[in-house]
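Human: Here is a favour to ask of a fellow structure person. Comparing notes only helps if you start from a blank page. Give me a protein, with the fold worked out from its sequence. Please set it down just below, with no commentary around it:

Assistant:
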Amino acid sequence: MFFCKPGKLVLVFEFLENDSKKYMKSLNGRLTPSLRLKIADFGLARAFTVPIPKYTHEVVTVWYRPPEILLGASVYSIPIDIWSMGCIFGEMATGAPLFAGDSEIDTIFKVFQKLGTPSEEMWPGVNELPDFKPNFPQWPTRGWANIRNMGQQVGPEGINILENTM
């Protein structure tokens, strides 16, 4: 729920006993598809402004950073949160992080190994990102249903969510 005071926006949430990691651990790592969760993380929240300013790429835990940030983009907005939400959704379904790299390059390679190395045709502008290298290993797209039995875990509706958020 939210309400406005003159010049302020106030958000009010119910109190939750656990964070998602503790809750998943209590269920031996996996959540059932029928469970609906509330996800909120305002650790790096900022005011939304237009035009969108340039930011540092060191936002979001590296496992949940979207490819454009891992590849050095300095201008980004709301879509980075959608990517992170997809990562959390996949983690809740499988019981483990999808892209658990130990550095930015390791993480982007884990993304490419699962989702395929992007080309200019599939992602116009990828060659212009500061840290994209045309000589990156070329991994084929595996498809969400083939990644960690995701199809069995989330069903067709879940696969559709992942395909549209990541």
Observations:
- Helices lie at 20-26, 67-70, 79-94, 104-115, 150-165.
